[in-house]
Amino acid sequence: MDDPELEKLHADRIASLKREVEKREAFKRQGHGEYREVSEGDFLGEVTRSEKVICHFYHKEFYRCKIMDKHLKTLAPRHVDTKFIKMDAENAPFFVTKLAIKTLPCVLLFSKGIAIDRLVGFQDLGTKDDFSTTKLENVLVKKGMLSKKKKEDDEDAEYQESIRRSVRSSENLDSDSD
């Protein structure tokens, strides 16, 4: 590339991608990007250490809880800026009482450690068992818990991965030239 403007745009884009990768990795170190179970003893720490947390209170024998699990497990890796956790309601009597959970599944939405909203059963999802992951995702976007995904995010995943590879290879070249 001989054009200084193009070189600057390219350098800026690579720097932006590096910052984005670092941010995603920091979120992952905090437990983001996966859907995992937490114990009652770990609950407060998990909820207060992240800005946005979605917590599913469930019962292992309830069919509808398994449906919600499936959808949240799909969403967690797509929305790394939000932490996704679940807690067995049977093993968390203190929080079930404190948070007034009466119906399962119950998905509590936390912002900066404070419960700001909840999904009770499938009321917000059309009340039927066959709602789509996209329907749940849209409800959580409207409630401010998930960032709206740009269409190209999904379409450009392969392109972005190739950029990451070129960033890594350029870093290797930089270190080789020292």
TrEMBL record:
GO terms for biological process: cortical microtubule organization. Residues 146-178 are annotated as: Disordered. It comes from the Eukaryota. GO terms for cellular component: cytoplasm; nucleus. Residues 38-123 form the Thioredoxin domain. One of its GO terms (molecular function) is beta-tubulin binding. This is Thioredoxin domain-containing protein. It comes from Eutrema salsugineum.
